[in-house]
Amino acid sequence: MFPSVLPTYNRAPLEFERGEGTWLTATDGRCFLDFGAGIGVNALGHAHPALVEALTAQAGRVWHLSNLYRIPEQQALADALVERTFADTAFFTNSGTESCELAVKMARKYWYDKGQPERVNIVTFAGAFHGRSSAAIAAAGSEKMTKGFGPLLPGFVHLPFPAHGAELEAAIDGKVAAIMVEPVQGEGGIRPLPEPCLKGLRDLCDRTGALLILDEVQCGMGRTGRLFAHEWAGIAPDIMMIAKGIGGGFPLGAVLATAEAASGMTVGTHGSTYGGNPLACAVGKAVLEIVGEPAFLDEVNRKAGLMRQKLEGLVASHPDIFELVRGTGLMLGLKCRVPNGDLVQAGYDQGLLTVGAADNVVRLLPPLNVTEDEIAEAVARLDAAAGTLAGRGAGA
Ligand SMILES: *Cc1c(COP(=O)(O)O)cnc(C)c1O
């Protein structure tokens, strides 16, 4: 019989019924340290009291309102995001994929309205992940995501990651509308774009007029220790896609943009039934109020330094299992010498949740309010997991 849930996921046989902070309890009673956080979604862990309060208080008032009307919670979240970022304006979506769709539309409409309708191409990079819609898979361009789903949406130019100067310069011709890039690739294997490259992209965009679209769906909302990852490089995008952490587990995404980049998006050009609904925006505002605090981000950086140090030690003591640690903030990856899936599985057996990524990497994306003790415990569990795999590594 065909599965009643479309079988597109390779699911682990784990079933959870409760969560609190960094911990999840399975239906069979086992407790797990959650260092996947729903793939970087549960930014404040499970059942954070402030988020539960924001959600339930809003649920008692009104759940859904059409964008035919003003939505005060949406306005408040937009104002808060505009106040704390480069952006002049925000459009709310329900996912990263939808944010990608709008980013592409916005960039193309910008040039159309400027009288250069030929500028439609979006430059993207190998290993990128921007979502699963037709535009998003065409943006990523990999065979793994696109095979069998043609004809693909045209207008994407794919470069290596990170691309080198000359190659990039040559790619930005009169048909390019925008460059789209993740400051830190997530699905691609926790690969940070070196700071000079991000600055170089900004400079190239300034010289050619191309819009810079940053996909901060995974690396944004405090994950790297700044509210948004690009802040480390001291640059700003023209358009930014966010989702995942902003809702803390409630479906919410957004496209943030400068007034100039957004100038083509006039009344009637875009919309969403659920986008910016009161429940999502009430939760998003509560997340932002906590994660946006400088003292909270200082703590993220402090704990990130601690975790990185412990992971370096782990790699040093299991050179047959691990090759290196990479990433930034609380977005860290262990490049493995054994198949990464084996380590994820061995972690499950030790009561630790991690997430695989491309390039044989295991991702560690704990809640941003993870404690020092939880970090120490997670690394101890990784150590035990690696111990059970000893002898299987390439170096053994
Ligand atoms: C997860 C992700 C997306 C897609 O987000 P969905 O909410 O799954 O649609 C897009 N870009 C990046 C960088 C992501 O990590």
Automatic annotation (TrEMBL):
BP-aspect Gene Ontology terms: L-arginine biosynthetic process
Q: Which PROSITE patterns match?
A: AA_TRANSFER_CLASS_3 (PS00600)
- Where does the protein principally reside? cytoplasm
Q: Which cofactor does it need?
A: pyridoxal 5'-phosphate
- Enzyme Commission number: 2.6.1.11
Protein location: Cytoplasm
**Which taxonomic lineage is given here?**
Bacteria, Pseudomonadati, Pseudomonadota, Alphaproteobacteria, Rhodobacterales
What is catalyzed by this enzyme?
A: N(2)-acetyl-L-ornithine + 2-oxoglutarate = N-acetyl-L-glutamate 5-semialdehyde + L-glutamate
Q: How does it assemble?
A: Homodimer.
Q: What is the organism of origin for this protein?
A: Rhodovulum strictum
CDD domains assigned:
OAT_like
Protein name per the record: Acetylornithine aminotransferase
